[in-house]
Amino acid sequence: MPLAFRYYDNARILSVALSRMFRVEKSVSSRLPEISVISPSPGGIMVAFGVREALGAHQIYWTEMEDNKRQFRQFIGQGDVYPAIIVDDIIRSGRAMRETVALVKELGAEIIGCGTIAKFEDAPSDFDGIPLKSLLTFDVNFYDTEEEWSHSRSASAAEELRVRF
Fold first, then answer.
1. 71-99 burial by CB neighbour count: b if 16+ within 10 A, else e?
2. Please, which contacts does 56-60 make with residues 24 or more away whose CB atoms are closer than 8 Å?
3. What is the H or E stretch that residue 52 is in?
4. Does domain 4-164 have CATH number 3.40.630.30?
5. Domain coordinates of the chain in residue numbers?
6. How many CB atoms lie under 10 A from the CB of residue 24?
7. For a pLDDT cut of 70, what percent of the chain falls above it?
8. Degrees (nearest 5) of the Cα angle 68, 70, 73?
9. Cβ neighbours for 109, distance < 8 A, ≥ 6 positions apart
10. Mean pLDDT over each residue of the chain, to the nearest integer
11. Which of 14, 4, 7, 42 lies closest to 115 in space, CA to CA?
C-alpha cells in the first residue's frame, strides 16, 4: 500500500473507487453530507481524506495508539461524531478496525459503513454486523517466487474444478 499511495493520483483514484461503493448504499447516500469518515490507522488517513472529499462528508477523524490504547487525537465529545464510515488502507487481522468501531460506539455514534482498499482473505468480512467493503482481496499466503505462486494458483484451480464436478 505505501507504494500505491506514494503518488497522489493513485491514492485519489483508489479512494474515489471505495467512496462509490458507499455512495450506492441508501443508508450512506441519504445522510450525506452529515457523515464522519474515520481512519483507524495512520495508513488509512489518506484513504479517509479521499473518501471524505469524494462523498462531500463534513467530518474526518483518525485514531492513534497511545499507551497501548487506540484513541482519537482530536478532542471529541459525546455526540460530536456524525454517523460514521470507518475506512483503512489494508486489513489483515481487523484489530484496528474492531477497536475503532468500539471507540466510535463508546461516543454514541452510529456506524453506517466500513471499508478498505485491500483485505487479506482471512480478514473479517464484517464488524458488528456491518459488512466490510473492499476493492481487492489478497491471498493469505506468502511465496518466495512467482513459480511457487503460479503452482499454488494452478493447484487451487484444479482443486476447485474437482470439487465442482
1. ebeeebeeeebbbbbbbbbbbeebebbbb
2. 56/32, 57/32, 57/33, 57/82, 57/85, 58/33, 58/34, 58/82, 59/35, 60/36
3. helix 45-55
4. no
5. 4-164
6. 9
7. 91
8. 115
9. 36, 81, 82, 83, 84
10. 88
11. 14
Read off the C-alpha cell for 50. Answer: 479521499
The set of cell numbers assigned to 51 is 473518501
Would you state the pLDDT for residue 164? 47
Q: Which residue matches cell numbers 500500500?
A: 1
Residue pLDDT, tens place only, 47-88? 999 999 999 999 999 999 989 999 987 778 777 889 999 999
The three cell numbers of residue 75 are 478532542
Q: Compute the average pLDDT of residues 5-20.
A: 92
